Amino acid sequence: xxxxxxxxxxxxxxxxxxxxxxxxxxxxxxxxxxxxxxxxxxxxxxxxxxxxxxxxxxxxxxxxxxxxxxxxxxxxxxxxxxxxxxxxxxxxxxxxxxxxxxxxxxxxxxxxxxxxxxxxxxxxxxxxxxxxxxxxxxxxxxxxxxxxxxxxxxxxxxxxxxxxxxxxxxxxx
Length: 173
What we know:
This protein has 2 domains: about 1-85, no CATH class; about 90-173, no CATH class. Helix content is about 60%, strand content about 0%. The chain has 7 helices and no strands. The longest helix is centred in the C-terminal third of the chain and has 25 residues, at about 145-170.
């Protein structure tokens, strides 16, 4: 889920940047704007995207922007909310993991390259806590294909967000 959310965030940012640069038409540019040599500006369809895909990507990005402390949880909530029900994702497991991550994973430094022992420990602790709350291993596996990978992404995101926060603080002086 985190990879999908990251891809959607990037898609929204890149598409919006292309609109600002005038490389693709925006919703308010009217039907196919023309450039001086007679060619038309590209549309979402021309670059292989539907307007719905762009809209969903912006929703994921903007949901996270409103809820910075819970990244990647805002994206996970959006994806869980909009995912087709036949995926049978356990919303209870997702909510539990979101809360676990927000309470336990903070910016404490990046894991060394290739070393996921911290993520593995968090995943094991999360599974044990979930079991104590009556959430089965099957529910957890249904909601999170690789909980260790999700925890590793959450650790990285927490640290990235702290670096960004500190950098923007430095820029303000």
